[in-house]
Amino acid sequence: MKTCDLPAYAIADLVRTRQISAVEVLEDALERIRRVDGRLGEVDAPRAESEEDLSSVHAFTQVTEDYAREQAQKIDQLVKDGENPGPLAGVPYTAKDIFTVKGVRTTAGSKILSNYIAPYSATVVERMEAAGAVMLGKVNLDEFTYGSSSESSTYKPVPRNPWDTSRVVGGSSGGSAAAVAAGEGAISLGTDTGGSIRHPAAFCGTVGLKPTYGRVSRYGLIAFGSSLDCPGPLTRNVTDAAITLQAIAGHDARDATSAAVPVPDYLAEMEKEVRGLRIGLSEEFFRVTYFDAESMELVENPIDDQIREAVLSVAGFLAQLGADIVTDVPMPHTKYGVPTYFVISRVEASSNLLRFDGVKYGYRTSQSFKDLPELYRKTRGEGFGVEPKLRMLMGIYLSAAQFDKGYYQRALKARALIRQDFETVFDPRGKYRLDALLTPTAPSTAFPIGSVYGDSVLMQYSDQLTATTNHAGIPGLSFPVGFDRDNLPIGAQVLGPDYSEGRLLGIARAYEEVTEEKAWRNLKPPLVAALDS
Amino acid sequence: MEERIPRKDFQRLAELASLELPEQEAEYLRKELNKQMISIEVLESIPIDAETGTAAHGLPYTEFNSPAPREDIASQDPHRQAILDQAPELEDDYIVVPDISHQELE
């Protein structure tokens, strides 16, 4: 029995009931990686050029085969001894290479950490292991998570979309989404700072859950924007996202921002019906607004019609199930999400990146240097790629007194207004009384590799529909809702009030259930389907 | 189009960021920063009244979700050797920091 394409809950059930061993599940997953992933990402390695490179996924930067085998054997022993192996017993998963794993190389997709062996594990990794999951390896990402296509990684080749390998995987948790879509693990741990779980999930046709800020511990996560970062799961179905969140959520004394709020039973929450829920649609989420550098004016462009139709079709199904669909919900500050993000995320990133200096750990220049400042400049100039450099320079510009025009303070006020938009429509005593908003996840489906990368402004606007969620700190769940004319996946997201992950999972699960007979539900990425034929 | 970040300011930024940049890369970065600044300036058009506060976190921390402060207990970090093993240069279990140049302030 091949287990690569089974849901995580089914794999765990088979392992617990001794119908298959965790080691056998692992061997299936390793075989899948060998068949579809191609060359592993390496620092400054050649880009994809050969036919084999161009038709492979390249999700991984590292396969931790021995580490995984040891974990799988431990699970099998627990089962044999009649002990509880955990809710994710023997389930293969991957971790975005931004999470520390004790004794394992942890790089953030950057040359500056290319030799860094983490001395401790992230809380989420420890919790996955305690739940019985088996880590297959580390997956690629935009360098330090800075990007929306995973093309900025120093580790080449960068991931390619399993649905069409000429397309990007989205980002920054692009290796995560690609691995899950291609059956290289049932779950991947990602992070979402401006949409980095939901965006690649939409591009690769997977589920991606960004929890409420503080719902999941950030301990052991290499920081990008500390007031925005949220770890969360990418999976192939909604139930697996619920089980994974159950395993990783909850207070952690090692993260002072982790919430002291009890964790509900997400599977039970997920089964609640959607009848009577008020679900909103907002026109502000069906267009992209940006400042055009040539005309120097705000320009509004509608998102792709196919995406609009797909999201409205989800609303139709939910209405059939008894949800009240509320249209024309005003979210007036949505268009400021990206400019606000440009400021807050860069200022926080520049602060977080100053610690990488070639003295304590990580890459150090091989050039000679006369003193410490020169060591810093050479090491950092060589060790960082263009995206981290851009973010540091911008962060310093925006926060340095000599350049100060009050951008940061203004962005923090804009963030308060963005939060207020959500509070107004979710207010149970207000005019709209919404339980959730339903929106597209991204303004487009996966674009061709190389078509946007290099234009840092255009790339950032790919996050316009996701970034406001991070500013507000609320949860968001992206789930697949069909395909466009080019057979590329389309994602929709549901956004809800603080700590409403259970309800969001319930809405996505109800949609999943009511559409399970649809032909598109049975589609597999071509390179996976080819293995079956 | 007026450049928000001219070359002179950019050099100062690179210095503050401790980045040695080849000329071609510096010019690409400066061009992208200027494009980003145009996008950011849209924030100046948002009507913000005096009542609007700043939000350091989107999600407010209240009694409902704030964890209790940790006990203030000193403990030995369990990862001491693994941390030392990462350092590029060690001397008797101390991480070697290269010379710090001194500059007379005007």
Nearest-integer average pLDDT of chain B? 90
Total number of helices of chain B? 3
Distance between the terminal alpha carbons of chain A, to the nearest Å? 16 Å
| Series of secondary-structure elements of chain B, N-terminal to C-terminal | HHHEE
Low-pLDDT segments, ≥5 res of chain A: none
Helix content bin of chain B: 25-40%
Which stretches of chain B are low in confidence, meaning pLDDT under 50 for 5 or more residues running? Answer: none
Please outline the major beta sheet of chain B: 2 strands, antiparallel
Number of strands of chain A: 15
Give the N-to-C terminal Cα separation of chain B. 36 Å
How many helical stretches of chain A?
18
Quaternary organisation: heterodimer
Structural class of chain A: alpha/beta
Note the overall shape of chain B: flat
Structural class of chain B: mainly alpha
Strand order of the largest sheet of chain A: 2-4-3-6-8-7-14-15-13-9-12
Most extensive chain interface and residues per partner: A-B, 84 and 58 residues
Name the beta content range of chain A. 5-15%
Gross geometry of chain A: globular
Topology readout:
The complex is a heterodimer of chains A (533) and B (106).
Chain A: H1 8-16, H2 22-36, E1 42-43, H3 51-54, E2 60-63, H4 65-80, E3 92-96, H5 123-130, E4 134-139, E5 155-156, H6 174-181, E6 187-192, H7 198-204, E7 207-210, E8 230-235, H8 238-248, H9 266-270, E9 278-280, E10 287-292, E11 297-302, H10 305-320, E12 324-326, H11 337-353, H12 372-383, H13 386-399, H14 407-426, E13 436-440, H15 456-460, H16 467-472, E14 476-483, E15 489-495, H17 501-514, H18 526-532
Parallel strand pairs in A: 3-4, 3-6, 9-12, 9-13
Antiparallel strand pairs in A: 1-5, 2-4, 6-8, 7-8, 7-14, 10-11, 13-15, 14-15
Chain B: H1 7-16, H2 23-40, H3 80-84, E1 90-91, E2 94-95
